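Let us practice reading a record.
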Amino acid sequence: MLTIDNFIKLFENATRECWDRPALSDFRKSTITYRELAERVYTLDLIWKKAGLKSGDKIAINTKSCALGASVFMAAVSKGYVAVHLYNAFTPADTQRLVNHSDSKILYTEKRAFDEMNFDEMPQVLCVIDAGTGKVLASRNGVDHLYAQADALLAAQFPNGMQPADFNVCDPDIDDVCAILYTSGSTGNPKGVMLTYRNYTANVQVIRPGFPFHPRENYLSLLPHAHSFGLTCDVVIPMTMGMHVTVLGIPPIPSNVQAAMQEVKPRIFYGVPLIFVKFAEYVLGDDIKSPEGKAKLSDYKHNPDFCKMLHDKLLAAMGGNIEVFATGGAAIPSEVESLLVYKLQLPFITGYGLTELAPIVSYGKLGKYIPKSCGEYLPEIMECKIVSPDPENIAGELLVKGDQVFKGYYKNPEATAQVLVDGWFHTGDMGTIDKDRNVFLLGRSKNMILAGNGQNIYPEEIEVILNELPYVAESIVLQRDTKIIALIVPNLDALDKAGLNADALDAIMKQNISLLNSKLPSYSTVNGFELRFEPFAKTPKGSIRRFMYK
């Protein structure tokens, strides 16, 4: 059950208390204080109200992670609107379709993406703003003039300037929807996850005590804000603490991450596994790959000084203040887990969550690392159960009920009914739970692929497009290591009629993959293909037996 105030009330208090302190920065670019953030929240609310928007109307945010996007999100949820986060790697066509599906009235996006959209085909959108410059790209009903008058609108509201006591958030029902996150773009059946004030408040309640979030300190945001993990941990929680959030905003390659870490010096490093892998290799590569280094690490228990040197070197490269490394979203390679946890003894934990839970289910505790565990689920806000005759030893589907469970999929009652049954959310993940509440995931009952950056990839969506391309009879998209591979059964009858040989078939399929990738977000890129000349094995109802193909 909830024991803290609505998260936006916590944000209100933090803003008042940290009025002249820095709130949001884009790395090595601009910074705004909590006063300036409060002014932006009020200014946007004034504009939106004068444009005719009312409580519950949708504000779409389709940008890379940035300070402006974070401030628009906080403005929307603080004033009773619904923030619709759309991953900026969605294709412009998918973004346009989801803007329409979500009934959004305002769209923040990037000019390069909007240039490939058709404003006339988004009739409910009143204004489109470039998230890079803040300039209006298109508008209706004179809303562009309202944005042009932003400073005057705020000055008229507060002739003597805005003061801390003037900053007030709305007073919504705790179960009102405040955000919609779309789990995928290219599908005819969109799943817009409706998250409530209760969902986010529950996450704030259970995550803050487990990590070194400290009021007014620095925080480095590395994760995509359109992803539930990033939005909650990199925006919502720090903003309720009056922290100074610096958004990396550039590719999280090791050199960029190290530069930001050295400047910001955060206590927490949240990242998807790929970031940890690349960073460890970048900083320690020569030490751990040399013959001498390999030998010492293979016998690490008898080489504590060498391991301590690596430990100190890695922490120093991250600014020197890191108290916890936390990851989730995709499995971390066992050799990296062994290096970080056992050989270097870094403060490393793993967690598990889903967009529909905003996102938390479980996380580990420092000093209690359990291999292959996703940490302990959190009984303060949830119940968990495994549908199995022996939940500790026989894997079954994980079900969750509690304050963090979403309200449903926007305008999609059929999909909602499939996963929400009597208040229990069916995660689609298979696993076990031990007597100490540790969650162990053994696989996914669904077919979702987790990209290295933590983004969800739905192979069926890719297959629908691929199966429509020339000479493709059927296909399976799967992951091998970090690569996405398509297994393709060619249409042999069509090939025979066309008189095409093996060389021509290979060229056609390479062209098909190129065309396919042009229709997909970058994180879904298919890296290669294999040809199969026998139809895939099927179930009685005609579904492919995916487990037979690796």
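A brief commentary: The chain is about 35% helix and 25% strand.
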